[in-house]
Design goal:
- α1 crosses α8, α3 runs parallel beside α4 and α4 packs parallel to α5.
- By secondary structure, the protein is an alpha/beta fold.
- β5, α5 and β6 form a beta-alpha-beta unit.
- The protein is globular, with a radius of gyration of 17 Å.
- It starts with 6 loop residues before the first strand and ends in a 7-residue tail after the last strand.
- The chain has 8 helices and 7 strands.
- It has a 7-stranded parallel β-sheet, with helices on both faces.
């Protein structure tokens, strides 16, 4: 098991890609801290990990609450004496172009998609620096390298995650901390509901994906979990400041 004895925190791990990443990390031996705003969702992921023979605990919090986030991370470090992996995954889609998107929606996107990643990384960095090693993985999106129709809040924040990832990687490589970003494309989870509604429903989004993605289909979460495992494990030990796009070829068109 390539993550044996490591402690990983995964935000937004109660469903979708975050849950799939948490499951594969646990399968590979990590103790996974399942961080999610929803008690039920977090508990479900922990239960799935336990049922598969893995090790996990629940951390229910709002990652945009700085005090709760700092306290939660500190408690994990106190209990386990280490934090080896942080996967900043919690995020939100808010639809709308420049004139349509609500200011509150834009601010929510920034707070959750960028600032929460920044703060969680800030809180774990002293722990990783002291250990002389660690991995931070930030979830961006193919929208972080593309134009995305009438999704200005989402696209802006996902581009920002890439810039932040590169900056953090450059600043902290000398401490043995690697920082990379994952850019998933179309993954069939409820996360896409705002864009699906904006596009006019399921049939419209299916046509869109078939046309825009060279592989002609959505990804399933297991196809994103494997790249997550690569990025948080020693399989990518000489890789930092990089952006791994997993999008069925959409960005080459």
């Amino acid at each position: 098991m390539i993550l044996k004895k490591r402690v990983a925190i995964v935000t937004g791990a109660g469903s979708g890609i975050g849950q799939a990443g948490a499951l594969i990390m646990a399968k590979e031996g990590a103790h996974v801290v399942v961080a999610d705003i929803g008690f039920v969702n977090a508990s479900e992921t922990v239960s799935l990990i336990h049922a598969a023979g893995g090790s996990a605990e629940r951390l229910v919090l709002d990652v945009t609450d700085d005090n709760a986030l700092e306290a939660g991370i500190a408690a994990v470090a106190d209990r386990h004496g280490r934090i080896d992996i942080l996967h900043n995954h919690a995020g939100a889609q808010v639809a709308g172009d420049l004139e349509q998107v609500s200011i509150e929606g834009f601010d929510k996107s920034w707070s959750l998609n960028v600032r929460a990643h920044f703060m969680a990384s800030r809180f774990v960095m002293p722990i990783m620096k002291k250990a002389g090693k660690g991995v931070i993985l930030n979830t961006s999106s193919s929208s972080g390298v593309l134009y995305d129709r009438e999704m200005i809040a989402y696209t802006t924040t996902k581009h920002a995650v890439i810039a932040m990832t590169r900056q953090m990687a450059g600043d902290y490589a000398k401490f043995g901390v690697r920082v990379n970003a994952l850019c998933p494309g179309w993954v069939d989870t409820p996360f896409n509901e705002p864009f699906i509604a904006q596009m006019g429903g399921r049939s419209a989004i299916e046509s869109y994906v078939a046309e825009k993605v060279p592989l002609g289909r959505w990804a399933n979460v297991s196809e994103i979990a494997e790249p997550i495992l690569f990025l948080v494990s020693d399989r990518s030990s000489y890789m930092t400041g990089q952006i791994l796009v997993v999008d069925g070829g959409e960005t080459i068109v």
